[in-house]
Amino acid sequence: MPELAEVEYFRKCWDSGLGKRVTEVRCHPAARVFRGMKTKELTVALTGSRLLSSDAHGKQMIFRFENATLGVHLGMTGELRCEGYGFDPGKHDHLVLRQKTRTLVFSDPRLFGRLLFHQGPADPDWWTAQAPSVLSKEFSQATLAAFLLRRQRAPIKSILLMQQAFPGVGNWMADEILWQARISPTTLGGKIRDVGALWKTIRSVCRNALRIIGTDGSDPPTDWLFSHRWGRGGFCPRCGLDLERSPIGGRTTCWCPRCQER
DNA sequence: TCTCGTGTTTCTTG
DNA sequence: TCAAGAAACACGAG
Alpha-carbon distance A9 to A213, whole Å? Predict the structure, then answer.
């Protein structure tokens, strides 16, 4: 479930390769994750190149090497791992970067993820053109109010999934934000009564998820909706009522019909 | 065997 | 012309 915090966790999985040279690149060129990319150029550029730095923004990651830049989007089922040197890649390990004492692996069974490649001294457009983080100064109550005004007729659940305004917020995080803010997922963007409270909740859920999941991959506390929303059944951790589930904005949405009446 | 699904892009509809 | 919803992508899990 790679959303904001999980992406940060996966980014760190390659940290042990920082400053080290890539000795061998293996990839599955036909895999959908390479769409639009010349994998031969990627292989040539990364072989012998040192991994210099990495960053995560929303659901996008960037890995800067000496000779090239690699972008990683995990889609729904992608992941990054660090394995030992002698690691034998499986069929879903589409990009494998061998270093002297370890192997950096990008794996994605469903192939919804995407790898990007760039050569040049500056960071590429697909990195610099991203929307400001919801934790940045640029994401103000005024920008949130203006965005809601432009999306007056869409349910708030669908709006929170729009990456051009809320980079990194995915399905479970959107449900968590609405549950903590006590807003029904079906409320239309133009009907949000307290934009300031929603703004605060968006920031606190993202900040805490990054702190908890982004640090070591552990789960949020049990008084979050998170632990109760998966699968069937489940009770609201605040009032104990049965949770409801229904697709909103094309995604399974989970909410408490009592706590989130409006 | 069948249904479901954590994301994004593209197409269709209003 | 724009916004919102639906479909498609591919495959493992239940």
Answer: 7
